[in-house]
Amino acid sequence: MEDSEIQPLYDNYHRKIAQINLDFKRYLYDKINWNARMIGIKGARGVGKTTLLLQHILENHDDIDQTLYASLDDLWFATHSLIDLVDWAYRHGIKRLYLDEVHRYKMWSETLKNIYDSYPEMSIVFTSSSLLAMDNAKVDLSRRQTPYMLYGLSFREFLAFENVLQMQVVPVETLLRDHVKIAMQVTKQMKVAPLFEAYLEHGYYPFYHDVGDDFHVYLREIVSLVIDNDLPAVERVSFETLQKVKKLLMIISERVPFEPNMSELWNQLSTNNELGLRMLYSLDKAQILSLLSAKTKSYKYLFKPDKIFLNNTNLMHALCPKVEVGNERETFFHSQMTVGHDVKTPQKGDFLVNDRYLFEVGGKSKTFDQIKDVPDSFLAIDETEVGFANRIPLWMFGLTY
């Protein structure tokens, strides 16, 4: 391949990196072992994976042309192969590549395996926004790659992204013990309520900064892309099944958090239990839905969930005809605490975290009646800036990642 053929990739790379700054970095940035030979970063569409890659290049390569970033959805790959790119880079002394959207490349997992085995001096960082494709890869890369998951912005990150407040992650054990002290320090510096409301409506996906009032339109388009493009890429699904997936999502959106009567739900969709559960779990993998049950979730053995949530409150505002405040509270708590914690349905209360801490979520009039006398039980209370004892402000659970 001639050197001139690579120029379009470098032009696109230069344009993208020129827009990058290092003022704000995602929680995952410092957790990645960037020295690993192959690093896989997956996450839902729009959570900031591309920015994370480009920030690392900008911060760690004095000469950015000693490495190369390429998105595999670039038209360049219509007439060139990924092996062509790797071979050219290797011959020119480039031993580190950053590959975005790898799921858009046919036979991506097999190709990455071959690169890893055939170019022992080459290291690759790759991303995918199709969680379904990553989980259904034809070749198991687990022995070769170091995998990471990037979630959307936490409330803590949203505050930093808005240049309102910089603070460290608060581990859940520290939060439960020191929440009054932490809340008093935070509320001296800002008014929580309007920022919390803004986060619930549009703060989970960083691209809200770029699209402004069209944010919910873009978010609905992302959901459609997942169903129309990502799902057919990994499942043999008919047009009729895709319409059922959309109908399923709309039924759930009208009632989230949804405690499903499965036979009634399958009747509404004119489907059976096996296909219905596969649809539910596919939407969960794609981080559109989030399933909650009393036992640990398994994608190998599909079982009826106890509750079905939308993945985050921004999706509620984009998809739900009306956002009910109690449902929004539970969805926020669930979306924040599932990052780095095991969250299950308890016998009493709303959520059991790490098989130890029991939580009820509600407004400021919420009482302990439902979970009284249960050890390690807490209330997550909305409309409250500073709590006391085991009554913890709901917004503070957004500080845990």
Structure, described:
This protein has 401 residues and is α/β, with parallel strands linked by helices. The protein has a five-stranded parallel β-sheet with strand order 2-3-4-1-5. It has a five-stranded mixed β-sheet with strand order 8-9-10-11-12. Strands 6-7 form a two-stranded antiparallel ribbon. Strand 9 and strand 10 form a beta hairpin. The longest helix has 20 residues. It is globular. The protein starts with 6 loop residues before the first helix and ends in an 8-residue tail after the last strand.
Major sheet summary line: 5 strands, parallel
Structural class: alpha/beta
Mean pLDDT: 93
Principal-axis shape equals globular
What are the segments in which pLDDT stays under 50 over at least 5 consecutive residues? none
Strand order of the largest sheet: 2-3-4-1-5
Total helical elements: 15
Total count of strands: 12
Rg over alpha carbons: 22 Å
Helix content: 40-55%
Instruction: Please write the string of helix (H) and strand (E) elements.
Output: HEHEHEHEHEHHHHHHHHEEHHEEEEE
- Residue share in β-strands: 5-15%
Terminal residue distance: 45 Å
